[in-house]
C-alpha cells in the first residue's frame, strides 16, 4: 500500500506553496481577519491568472486536467495556509453541479464566466427554520409563465455580499412529501427584492441573512427538474463534504511547535521538556495524520470513479471535531495567555489557539453538523435504517 500522493502531486504542492508565499500577502491576511470575509478579489484574480480556480477540471472545460491526488495536495496547501478560498470554493462547487446536471446553455453561459473569475456563486440552502433538515426549506418559488417568483429568507448565506448568484433550494410543491417538492435555481443576487444583512459568527467570520421579496428568476436558471431539487442537492452536499480536511489543525500544530521551542514556564524550565506539553502536541499530530489519511481516502474514491459520500462525511466529522479538541487543549495549556485574540500584540503565536477554538465550533456546524454526519455514516455506511 502506497500512502504517498506521488511525484506529480509533490511538484504541484511545491507550485502551490510558491504561489501562496507570493499571493497570500500580509495585507490579504490582515483584510481577511479585519473583515471576517474569506474571499479576496486580488487573491481571486491571482488564482485566475494561474488557471487555478478549477485545476482539476478537464481541459475542454477550462481546467488543467489535474488528477484527484494532485488536487488533494493543492487543497491541503491552501487549507494549511488559511487562504481566502470560500468564494472560489462555493463557485466551483456549484459550477461542478452545472457541469454534471446543467443544460448546455447553462454550461456555456456560467462555466466560462466562473473560470474567468467574473462571478461568485454562493450557497442558499439553510433557512431560519431549516438547517440540518435542509429538505424542510420553505422559501417559495411559484411559476409565472417563463419565470418563477421567489419569496422567503435564507440564513448563513456566506459571501452573499460579494456574490452574483445564489444556488438556492426552494419549495415548489408544498402538497407532497418534503423531499419531493423542492427545486433548485441560480438566483441573481444583484436585483431588486434581494436584501442582504450581515451576521457575525464567534470567530469574527462574516456570513449573512438574505431576504427574497418577489424576486423573479427565468426558468432558464432552474437547475434540474421541477420538484427534482433533492437529486441536485444530493450531488451538491457530497461535493461540499469531500476533499482535503484538517488544514486548520495542521496550521495550529505548526504554531504550537514554534511556541514550544522557545517557551519557558514560571520557574524558567523549557516547556519543550514538559511531558504534558509533549503529550498534547503528540496527540494532535496523530489526529492530524488521521484527518490527512481520510482526505486521501476520499481522493482515492474519487480517483477510482466513485463519489466519496460516507468517506467525505467521516473526514469532515473527524477533522472538525479534532480541531475542537486540539484548540481547547492548547487554550487550556496556554492558560490566560491562550485567550488573547488575534490582533492583540501580546497574543501567543498571533492568537492562533484562541482563533482556532472559535473557528472550530463553526467547522463542526457548516456543511452538516457532527450529529448529521454521524447519522449519514450509520445509515449509508452501516446500512442502518433512517432515524425518525
Ligand atoms: C459559519 C457558517 C457558515 C455557513 N455558511 C452557509 C452557507 O454559505 N450556505 C448555507 O446554506 N448554509 C450555511 N451554513 C449553515 C449550516 O449548514 C447550518 O448551520 C447547519 O446545517 C446546521 O443547521 P442549523 O444551524 O439550522 O442547526 P439545527 O439543524 O437547528 O441543529 C441544532 C442542533 O440539533 C442537532 N440536530 C439537528 N438535527 C438532528 C438529527 N437529525 N439528529 C441529531 N441531532 C440533530 C444539530 O446537530 C445541532 O446540534 C453556515 C453555518 C455556519 C456556522
Could you describe the 3D structure shown?
One of its GO terms (molecular function) is flavin adenine dinucleotide binding. Residues 228-381 form the Acyl-CoA dehydrogenase/oxidase C-terminal domain. With 388 residues, this protein is an alpha+beta fold. It has 3 domains: 7-84; 122-226, Butyryl-CoA Dehydrogenase, subunit A, domain 2; 242-381, Butyryl-CoA Dehydrogenase, subunit A, domain 3. Helices cover 48% and strands 14% of the residues. A 4-stranded mixed sheet has the order 1-4-5-8. A 4-stranded antiparallel sheet has the order 2-3-7-6, with no helix packed on it. Strand 2 and strand 3 (147-155) form a beta hairpin. Helix 5 (86-101) packs antiparallel against helix 6 and helix 8 packs antiparallel against helix 9 (275-303). The structure holds flavin-adenine dinucleotide.
From the structure above, extract its key features.
flavoprotein, Butyryl-CoA Dehydrogenase, subunit A, domain 3, alpha+beta, four-stranded mixed sheet, 388 residues, oxidoreductase, four-stranded antiparallel sheet, 3 domains, Butyryl-CoA Dehydrogenase, subunit A, domain 2, globular, binds flavin-adenine dinucleotide, Acyl-CoA_Oxase/DH_mid-dom_sf
Amino acid at each position: 500500500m502506497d500512502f504517498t500522493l506521488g511525484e506529480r502531486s509533490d511538484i504541484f504542492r511545491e507550485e502551490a506553496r510558491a504561489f501562496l508565499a507570493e499571493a497570500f500577502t500580509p495585507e490579504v491576511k490582515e483584510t481577511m481577519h479585519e473583515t471576517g470575509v474569506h474571499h479576496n478579489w486580488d487573491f481571486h484574480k491571482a488564482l485566475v491568472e494561474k488557471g487555478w480556480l478549477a485545476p482539476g477540471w478537464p481541459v475542454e472545460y477550462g481546467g488543467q486536467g489535474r488528477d484527484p491526488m494532485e488536487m488533494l495536495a493543492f487543497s491541503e496547501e491552501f487549507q494549511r495556509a488559511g487562504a481566502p478560498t470560500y468564494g472560489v470554493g462555493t463557485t466551483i462547487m456549484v459550477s461542478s453541479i452545472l457541469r454534471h446536471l446543467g443544460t448546455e446553455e447553462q454550461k456555456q453561459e456560467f462555466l466560462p464566466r466562473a473560470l474567468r473569475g467574473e462571478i461568485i456563486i454562493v450557497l442558499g440552502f439553510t433557512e431560519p427554520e431549516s438547517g440540518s433538515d435542509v429538505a424542510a426549506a420553505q422559501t417559495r418559488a411559484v411559476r409565472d409563465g417563463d419565470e418563477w417568483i421567489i419569496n422567503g429568507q435564507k440564513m448563513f448565506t456566506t459571501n452573499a455580499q460579494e456574490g452574483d448568484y445564489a444556488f438556492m433550494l426552494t419549495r415548489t410543491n408544498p402538497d407532497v412529501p418534503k423531499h419531493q417538492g423542492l427545486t433548485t435555481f441560480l438566483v441573481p443576487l444583484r436585483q431588486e427584492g434581494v436584501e442582504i444583512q450581515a451576521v457575525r459568527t464567534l470567530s469574527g467570520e462574516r456570513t449573512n441573512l438574505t431576504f427574497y421579496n418577489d424576486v423573479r428568476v427565468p426558468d432558464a436558471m432552474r437547475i434540474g427538474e421541477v420538484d427534482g431539487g433533492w437529486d441536485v442537492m444530493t450531488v451538491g452536499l457530497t461535493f461540499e463534504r469531500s476533499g482535503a480536511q484538517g488544514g486548520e489543525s495542521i496550521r495550529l500544530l505548526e504554531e504550537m511547535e514554534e511556541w514550544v521551542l522557545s517557551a519557558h514556564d514560571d520557574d524558567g524550565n523549557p516547556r519543550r521538556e514538559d511531558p504534558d506539553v509533549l503529550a498534547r502536541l503528540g496527540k494532535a499530530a496523530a489526529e492530524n495524520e488521521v484527518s490527512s489519511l481520510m482526505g486521501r481516502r476520499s481522493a482515492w474514491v474519487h480517483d477510482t470513479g466513485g463519489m466519496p459520500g460516507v468517506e467525505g462525511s467521516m473526514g469532515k466529522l473527524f477533522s472538525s471535531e479534532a480541531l475542537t479538541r486540539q484548540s481547547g487543549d492548547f487554550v487550556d495549556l496556554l492558560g490566560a495567555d491562550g485567550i488573547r485574540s488575534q490582533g492583540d500584540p501580546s497574543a501567543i503565536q498571533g492568537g492562533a489557539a484562541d482563533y482556532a477554538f472559535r473557528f472550530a465550533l463553526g467547522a463542526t456546524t457548516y456543511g452538516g453538523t457532527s450529529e448529521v454526519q454521524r447519522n449519514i455514516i450509520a445509515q449509508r455506511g452501516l446500512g442502518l435504517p433512517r432515524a425518525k
